[in-house]
Amino acid sequence: MSATTPQLKQRFRGYFPVVIDVETAGFNHRTDALLEIAAVTLKLDEQGLLQKDQTFHHHIQPFEGANLEKAALEFNGIDPYCALRGAIDETDAMKDLCKQIRKQQKQAECQRSVIVAHNAAFDQNFVNAAIERASIKRTPFHPFVSFDTTSLAALAFGQTVLVKACQAAQISFDQNEAHSALYDASKTADLFCTIVNRWHQLGGWPLNNSQPDSDTHEHD
Hints:
alpha/beta; about 220 residues; single chain; disordered C terminus; 7 helices
């Protein structure tokens, strides 16, 4: 990579953005089951434009004692105990996800991963709770920093609902595929990349006086 090639580690102050979407059996991250998780990593191309890179995805078995809200299951259409889901143990899923993200983060020479999501606090809370249940000590994710595409879409397009924001951004969106973590994560990644790239094309980044941030995130 040449010295003039844009590098992801310089774009978000050393953070490695990971687009996350989860499907759950309710709204309470402490008590309700995590049923599906998808993650999309990102990279910069030779022109400094952000694009999707790799995708990680797991269907997850409800953890022992998990609450399953009937209304939530009717909404997302998931049968938690259907064998055809190919669901795996939550601990195994989270350990694999963290391992893969740490690998990608290291390759990008970034210091910490940050969750990008639509209504990010919801997804982040479920990820943090699952990581805690799995007793994972080396989580790549920052515990509270996140990039929320809801707020970014409101700024860029005047929309906060994912499908409407994608439509405003001229990103195709099949509502029949919605409420699949894999599909929604992919579309959220498309939306995030579109907003970041538009800001770049408008001349908002890199700043003329910008310098690579050399400090760590000890106090973040």
